[in-house]
Amino acid sequence: MISTKKVLISIIIFNFYTFAQSGGPDGELSASLRYLSQRYTMPTAQTKGILNDIGTEELAHLEMVGAIVYQLTRDLDSKIVKESGFGDYFINHSTGVYPANSNGSPFNAFCLAVSGDPITDLNEDLAAEQKARATYDNILRLSDDPDVNDVIKFLRAREVVHYQRFGEALRLLEEDLRPKKTGVGMKDCDNK
């Protein structure tokens, strides 16, 4: 439970960054849907399993981010809402946790990168994990709440682990494909 409540402008600014991790293109919702969708075209059980595990964990991260946002905003009074720039969001969602980016744009499936090519998708996943880590780094630069920072540090550490796991998946996949004369994805492309 987030116990230190410094409900002023700094918390609201933090919330905008945290919303980015909820519904932004590099956030937890995008990551979970991306990985759970990409798993179907992974050619090995091991790479499918890695994407399934990480995609499922990202859903848990979404819940953690939502809990932080809710705990920080649930007791806001109208004066703080007006002074903080949180008013437009508040009018539409009150203190509900709505998947939007830090600019207030709602989650959009256009940010999901699913190519159907396992090598391409795994490289996208490596980049996505680094973007998420960088966003958590930025949150830590803004937040002075030790309870919030503990959760964000945990989430940041998990993004690093996910990056390593995707690197492992890419290495395994490249090793598996190396001895074959065919490419990845549509097998008939190499025969033309």
TrEMBL record:
<keyword id="KW-0479">Metal-binding</keyword>
<feature type="binding site">
    <location>
        <position position="28"/>
    </location>
    <ligand>
        <name>Mn(2+)</name>
    </ligand>
</feature>
<comment type="similarity">
    <text>Belongs to the manganese catalase family.</text>
</comment>
<dbReference type="InterPro" id="IPR009078">
    <property type="entry name" value="Ferritin-like_SF"/>
</dbReference>
<feature type="binding site">
    <location>
        <position position="162"/>
    </location>
    <ligand>
        <name>Mn(2+)</name>
    </ligand>
</feature>
<keyword id="KW-0106">Calcium</keyword>
<dbReference type="InterPro" id="IPR007760">
    <property type="entry name" value="Mn_catalase"/>
</dbReference>
<feature type="binding site">
    <location>
        <position position="129"/>
    </location>
    <ligand>
        <name>Mn(2+)</name>
    </ligand>
</feature>
<feature type="binding site">
    <location>
        <position position="61"/>
    </location>
    <ligand>
        <name>Mn(2+)</name>
    </ligand>
</feature>
<dbReference type="InterPro" id="IPR012347">
    <property type="entry name" value="Ferritin-like"/>
</dbReference>
<feature type="binding site">
    <location>
        <position position="53"/>
    </location>
    <ligand>
        <name>Ca(2+)</name>
    </ligand>
</feature>
<keyword id="KW-0464">Manganese</keyword>
<dbReference type="GO" id="GO:0046872">
    <property type="term" value="F:metal ion binding"/>
</dbReference>
<feature type="binding site">
    <location>
        <position position="58"/>
    </location>
    <ligand>
        <name>Mn(2+)</name>
    </ligand>
</feature>
<protein>
    <submittedName>
        <fullName>Manganese catalase family protein</fullName>
    </submittedName>
</protein>
<dbReference type="Pfam" id="PF05067">
    <property type="entry name" value="Mn_catalase"/>
</dbReference>
